[in-house]
Amino acid sequence: MNFTLKNIDQIKSRGITEEEVDRQLMLFKTGLPHINLKSAANIGDGICELSKAEKRIYVEHYNAKKDALAIMKFIPASGAATRMFRFLFQFMERYDPNKESINSYINRNKASELSLFLVGLEKLPFYGIVLETMKKYNLDYDMLSNDGKMLTFINTLLELDKLNYSFFPKGVLPFHKYHDHIATAFEEHLFESASYASSNNVANLHFTISKKHKPIFDAEFKRIQNKVEQKTDVKFNIAFSYQKESTDTIAVSKNNEPFINDDGSLCFRPSGHGALLSNLNALDADVIFIKNIDNVVVHEYKKEVAEHKKILAGVLLKTQEKAFGFLKDLEGKNLTEGGLIEIARFLRTQLNVVISQEFEKYSLKYQIEYLKGKLNRPIRVCGMVKNEGEPGGGPFWIKDESGTVSLQIVESAQIDNNNKYQIEILKNATHFNPVDLVCGIKDYKGNVFDLSKFVDVQTAFITNKTIAGKEIKALELPGLWNGSMANWNTIFVEVPLVTFNPVKTVTDLLKPTHQVS
Fold it and tell me: What does pTM read for this prediction?
């Protein structure tokens, strides 16, 4: 495309090339292929169900090895809490206290989430904070009617000149109310890391955040550091990184032409969590735990959560040790036919790699190269939780355009909604992905892989958005734990539901794993 000089300067200033923008524009015009599901992964067919004895072995193996390892916890934490309070904003926009009561509004609109919020109000971790804030602004809460109290409470929670909670990142909002203090998700991640992601009493945590939020996170760490380090006897090294402008993607109009902002500039947008592959790729560690900022629990559940993180890490280490041994054998090139068959069996049974039917016809030299190519990859061990309700993205066997079958994490947005066969496979899924990963990013020689080489670029997807009331199309990069890891070696392990406790909406904080008994 012929860009103006102003456009070219804008593109270069973001660290993007004109060729990359042209490539993105072409994707809008040609479209991106849907994922071709072959079948849903389930227990015994892509998902491991471990016995108590096996779990104990993996925990003990990890505990025995961890102090000799560089361990990192990687936590995507860039999102603001806007979505958590979306239903409250909708209520405040639509509700007219002069025309109906709040209860009437709830019944008329079937606003079950609002009802749950109001019923559980006193159990929310920030309840006391809101009351104190109202006193500060001389709002006489006790003199108001019940509806007046509710409206004043919500206003205080959301208004720009009061608490303005929807502006803040989730990580620093009040999440859990203990008897002696209120904990943020950031604090809970520190306590959790001390229980499974520390080595020699040191825990390294890496948070990806928005640059504008760094002072808030810095202040939160300063506030809690001494307390958490004293209680856990662990020292915390905290690092932050930001989603790079070079990972933003161009937006287009409905006609697939670049969307031009009012000032004449091209419109670029953040490209989803797949952009964080660049952040992950900059790390150097033997074991990396990946978990979202909002997936935390109160203290009484931490032991069970930590045990299953150690299980996944133990699976990673044992599998990695076996793979590294085989790679060294392959490098020696003194393997017998039986040795090659053993490696192929390991790939198939332990790493879910579908071996080519032509493998036995290959020459010995090519068999060795083929097995090395399949083995020498990053490894991800992913916890999988049983579906409870409508299945969404999760573990599936897929077949790519070349006919190669592999085990992948697939989002529902990647599936063709008009294909009844594909939708039937989606409906039959037994498990879903709770973003619970333990990753090995080094090769058998101790070198860090270039993770960008293992991405399936065809798993990007296009979404519909609006800017200033105008419809646009946006391009999201292959998801961090989806297409960005498509060519990693993959192991799925069933984990209990207690390990999955995201806070997508504020009422999730009323669930048992977020309440102190």
Answer: 0.94
